[in-house]
Fold this sequence. Notes:
Layout: E1 6-7, H1 12-18, E2 21-22, E3 26-31, H2 34-50, E4 55-59, E5 73-77, H3 84-98, E6 103-108, H4 112-116, H5 119-135, E7 139-145, H6 151-160, E8 163-170, E9 173-181, E10 193-196, E11 199-202, H7 206-214, H8 225-236, H9 241-256, H10 262-270, H11 273-281, E12 283-284, H12 291-306, E13 321-323, H13 325-334, H14 338-344, H15 352-361, H16 368-381, E14 386-392, E15 408-411, H17 417-434, H18 438-446, E16 456-462, E17 466-468, E18 471-473, E19 476-481, E20 498-503, H19 507-510, E21 519-522, E22 544-549, E23 554-559, H20 560-563, E24 576-578, H21 580-588, E25 598-600, H22 603-608, H23 611-626, E26 630-638, E27 644-653, H24 674-677, E28 678-683, E29 686-687, E30 691-701, H25 703-707, H26 711-727, E31 733-738, E32 762-766, H27 782-789, E33 793-797, E34 805-806, H28 809-812, H29 818-821, E35 832-845, E36 850-854
Parallel strand pairs: 3-7, 3-8, 4-5, 4-6, 6-7, 12-13, 30-31, 31-32, 32-33
Antiparallel strand pairs: 1-2, 8-9, 9-10, 10-11, 13-16, 14-15, 14-16, 17-18, 18-22, 19-20, 19-26, 20-21, 22-23, 24-25, 26-27, 28-34, 28-36, 29-33, 30-35, 35-36
Amino acid sequence: xxxxxxxxxxxxxxxxxxxxxxxxxxxxxxxxxxxxxxxxxxxxxxxxxxxxxxxxxxxxxxxxxxxxxxxxxxxxxxxxxxxxxxxxxxxxxxxxxxxxxxxxxxxxxxxxxxxxxxxxxxxxxxxxxxxxxxxxxxxxxxxxxxxxxxxxxxxxxxxxxxxxxxxxxxxxxxxxxxxxxxxxxxxxxxxxxxxxxxxxxxxxxxxxxxxxxxxxxxxxxxxxxxxxxxxxxxxxxxxxxxxxxxxxxxxxxxxxxxxxxxxxxxxxxxxxxxxxxxxxxxxxxxxxxxxxxxxxxxxxxxxxxxxxxxxxxxxxxxxxxxxxxxxxxxxxxxxxxxxxxxxxxxxxxxxxxxxxxxxxxxxxxxxxxxxxxxxxxxxxxxxxxxxxxxxxxxxxxxxxxxxxxxxxxxxxxxxxxxxxxxxxxxxxxxxxxxxxxxxxxxxxxxxxxxxxxxxxxxxxxxxxxxxxxxxxxxxxxxxxxxxxxxxxxxxxxxxxxxxxxxxxxxxxxxxxxxxxxxxxxxxxxxxxxxxxxxxxxxxxxxxxxxxxxxxxxxxxxxxxxxxxxxxxxxxxxxxxxxxxxxxxxxxxxxxxxxxxxxxxxxxxxxxxxxxxxxxxxxxxxxxxxxxxxxxxxxxxxxxxxxxxxxxxxxxxxxxxxxxxxxxxxxxxxxxxxxxxxxxxxxxxxxxxxxxxxxxxxxxxxxxxxxxxxxxxxxxxxxxxxxxxxxxxxxxxxxxxxxxxxxxxxxxxxxxxxxxxxxxxxxxxxxxxxxxxxxxxxxxxxxxxxxxxxxxxxxxxxxxxxxxxxxxxxxxxxxxxxxxxxxxxxxxxxxxxxxxxxxxxxxxxxxxxxxxxxxx
Length: 855
């Protein structure tokens, strides 16, 4: 055995120079070739085996093996093509398994450049692995090819490692020049040393040292490998089409994602090399720009290429920036949280450590080089409001929308440069932290994405709109669908698409708004009103507007009547008309309204402008190219002449799984005994296409009992249903209750998180006007997207209408199993009735817009 706490390099003379290796040392050799590294590894291996050390070789490079086959050396091959996180996690897990005082040899770290395209990520890898190896009293050898890395990468490795050594081969001789030897010192330690057999001869004389170093070519500062590739791509613009196509594919794999899927095919078809270089010029950091950014850019390119000038004059330009996904990992690594991240990636720590990591992500610091780039971006935008949007790797792709799972943060961007910068940094932190939100984690788990890399890139966009006195907002915003899955009456053309339209910022179009409504537009007949508007058009219209308050420097909500009195720089009549009926009723009640209330119904916009036809054509064009239905987030601004510009903010494959999946469904005839067997029936107001679904269990929240509960008890009801939902995985269960599921206001419905109802087969909302409970068919919202992706049938029962029947006694006469299934929640049995319902079936006919549920 060697000296206690010490070990040998296998070069006795050099051992004397550095006073031996110490347990915990990470040894980084800067070499000119892999062969030079092999020559240094060989004596280290031989000596370590003589000292009966456990030796581990971590193999990941394409170069010749540093260690040949050896029965006493454990070799582990780890694939770096699977991405930074998986590779690093596997290495980390290997080190954990091997435990204390194992000795390691790693392949040349320079090999990772080919896979990760970024010096930054090699530095991050080393900063994760090196401290863990030190903690376990190991000794590990690493190599870097000299002049292949940036000074900043080498500086980061120097700061982290215990030994950094330059190796030179000059005139057939080998010289080792220690640059860092941590925690030991001698007067000649940091001179170059000639290795001659077992000896290490210090080169101390100035003439010899100068002669030696004058013979060594030392490269100038090297660009990051990422920048080298971009420079080569720039040069390729002068090459032939074949070369440009090759380089274009490389950039797509670098920035947009290399999976050979449909999105990659579309990117290769529509993006040019020049397009990609423009994106690269606006990327901060390295890595992927994420799904949301790709979808936005691709939609714009498709409309430009395929629109035949149809959309050339009506699409608003964009000047977005992208914060690369590598910045997310760098932020975690450089703040010292990778160990926590590794724990969170385990099955047992998935939720537990997610909470802790979320808290950390809100408090970290960014590296100086990233801070400088962020500041430059902010200087570019000036005081224009911006929005910082999540753009994760898995977002907005076929099959996984992640709708509303991650945060988007508006920055009104007012104040001093320092204040504006701090607001930007905090917005980025909030988006990063949202990757650890419980709902986002549950979504990934439910979608089978537990072990997939979910790096968080960020899309930074200039907010579309204009200043209106102290407010900033677009005239209209919303989300469009190339297929209309909410067919509320016969004759609607599903293939014409639909819009979910609001005045002001689009936040109200994608979120369920409490006590407020968006305008649903069937694009085959834009003036057609959904059935819930028929009773009271004002009641079911938009009453509040989301705007950016420049004076308050934040996102806020204003009354529509207030905002509509501003000078909108276009005709207000496109969006609203005076509501003389409300004004008359107020006068009768002795109330005076000045100015006259406005009714936001978009009637002229939808009947007289080209806007709905343009949106229909855009959506249809994108669907044709995607060969799949799409949904599109947009804004639109109108000029004084009535012309409009549409800003394409986001485009993704539309989530249609489970909707309209069955063929025609024949509803059973209601015979004389129907009253005994019919649970409910109705016409329209459902989403889920044709259906014939077994209903094995029903959870019914009794409206009268629920209304009498305190807010705290209502939240407890929600948590109780969440526990039932967890038990019902794999069962056919129907959840039905008063008002809106998923509301944040308990007086409007049950404040259930989506993860607490995700295993239900069907979800129904019941109107109980006497208690203030009113459903909202939330087609197009993030809540709706969740329902579609989870294959949950959704409907509303407006009890009291002629075409609606609701007979809760059909369920209430069955035993309440709540106490049996959740004994600790038996106290809520008066409000929650959970019953087994064998033989019950839910039927829906989308053509005739009829549904019923019966035993």
